[in-house]
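Protein chain data
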Amino acid sequence: ADTVILYDPWWNPAVEAQAMDRAHRIGQENPVFVYKLITENTVEEKILAMQERKRSLAEGIYDESKQQGQWKLSADELSELFTHPAE
C-alpha cells in the first residue's frame, strides 16, 4: 500500500505516526501519500491541536532549550476539547 487515510485522529500522535511509517516499509518503491481527514469545528480539530501540544511537549523532553513548563493539560484545556464553538 502506498496510501494512508486517517479518518479520525488518535489522542496519541504516535499511533498515527506508526500507521504512516508502516506505508514507508522496507521495499516500498512508490511515493507514499497520507491523507488526514479533519472536520472543521469538531472535537477532531481540537484533538489535532492537542496532538500538536503533545508533540511540542515531547520535543521539550528531548531538548531542554524547548521546555516551557507545559507538562500537563489545564482544566480549561480539557474542557475546551468538549466545548462546541459559538456560531
Q: What stands out?
A: The chain has one domain: 3-81. The first strand starts at residue 3 and ends at 6. The two ends are 41 Å apart (CA to CA). The chain has a mean pLDDT of 80.
